[in-house]
Design a protein that fits this description.
Structural class: alpha/beta
Strand order of the largest sheet: 3-2-1-4-7-6-8-5
Shape: globular
Distance between the termini: 43 Å
Number of helices: 12
């Protein structure tokens, strides 16, 4: 009989006092025993740190105060204080189902290095429902082969981190997406477990949502991600502006039909989720314009954020900025050769010896 691997849970925290008790309570309720828990506080000033200390004393967890640390730096710092073979990662402010961690850990097998769970929004209000329909897919919409998981619901073999595939500390947003890409590029094998679920709250206001999507797009610009997707967004909205300025009936009709097609997916999600929850069709209809408006707001926020990220990359890397992307930047933010981690190369999945090439600038 083989013994189970040791398991550590890590997370970063910053000013989560309103949702902290729910999050910590969900961790206490996990059916999967944990060998280590390490939480990094990025400098909370709302009572979060004090609550964490009391909880850690009772639970036997390690809490580290690191004012100013970003999410990536905090995760790397937390992992560096563990010794377990399996690292589970989540976000403060979420609420994990009781079997969340057990389902993740059980899915890690000989041919699996990373297990990603899923995340679902709380749908208490019309705002929640409309924003979730705009931004979040359903589990049935996910293609496991192409899914790039959020680190709010994730577990992986620690040996990959030891080998040098770490969270990129030079990124303030999109850090988990770049980590996904780096792991896949290095040869890690992923598995999607849709019933390993955590719940979370969507942004509470239009301003908070726009800022979130601005930061996501700025992260894309910094990392050199999705250039064609962002370019298409500028072309689409630029074309729409031209059509509105020309005021030609035929063009307006075509533009309107294309606009309806563009919001088809959010409307379908809203309808299906409302049906599942027993929400009346009138409430669904009323929420449709809100969902459409939020989609446009998110696009505009991205259009502002992406060039800001590009400009950051140019300032940081000078003439190399246009040709530099996450593939050529080490986790510490140093440009390195694209040959440093060949596509498809396999990193060790147990007891890695020495420093990984991925960690070398």
């Amino acid at each position: 009989m083989t013994s189970r691997p040791s398991i550590a849970l890590v997370a970063t925290v910053l000013n989560e006092q309103p949702r902290l008790a729910s999050w910590l309570g969900a961790l206490d309720a996990q059916t999967q025993p944990l060998d280590e828990i390490v939480l990094v506080d990025g400098g909370s000033d709302d009572g979060t740190w004090e609550t964490l200390q009391k909880w850690a004393d009772r639970r036997g967890a390690t809490v580290i105060r690191a004012p100013g640390a970003g999410i990536a730096e905090g995760r790397n710092l937390a992992i560096s204080h563990t010794e377990s073979e399996i690292i589970a990662v989540t976000d403060a402010g979420t609420r994990a189902g009781p079997c969340w961690l057990e389902r993740l850990v059980n899915a890690i097998a000989e041919d699996v290095d990373v297990v990603s769970g899923f995340f679902v929004p709380e749908l208490a209000t019309r705002w929640d429902r409309a924003l979730a329909a705009t931004t979040l897919p359903d589990a049935r919409d996910i293609d496991p082969e192409r899914f790039q998981p959020s680190s709010r619901s994730l577990a992986f073999r620690r040996s990959w981190w030891d080998a040098g595939v770490r969270y990129p500390e030079w990124l303030d947003y999109c850090e988990d997406l770049v980590w996904d890409f780096a792991m896949r590029r290095a040869g890690a094998r992923f598995r999607f477990v849709p019933d390993a679920v955590v719940e979370f709250s969507v942004r509470p206001s239009a301003r908070a949502f726009a800022l979130q999507y601005y930061r996501y797009a700025r992260g894309d610009g910094k990392a050199g991600l999705f250039a064609m997707r962002h370019a298409l967004r500028y072309v689409t909205y630029g074309g729409a502006a031209v059509v509105l300025a020309r005021q030609r009936r035929g063009e307006l009709v075509v533009a309107g039909l294309l606009g309806l097609a563009y919001v088809r997916t959010p409307v379908r999600r809203l309808r299906d989720r409302d049906r599942e929850r027993g929400v009346g069709w009138r409430s669904t209809v009323v929420a449709v314009p809100l969902a459409a408006g939020l989609r446009a707001l998110g696009d505009l926020a991205k259009m502002v954020g992406y060039p800001v990220g590009l400009w950051w990359r140019l300032r940081c890397f000078g003439s190399l900025g246009w040709r530099t992307s996450w593939r050529r930047i080490s986790p510490e933010g140093v440009v390195w050769s694209p040959a440093a981690l060949p596509r498809g190369s396999r990193q060790p999945t147990s007891s890695p010896a020495g420093e990984s090439r991925a960690a070398r600038p």
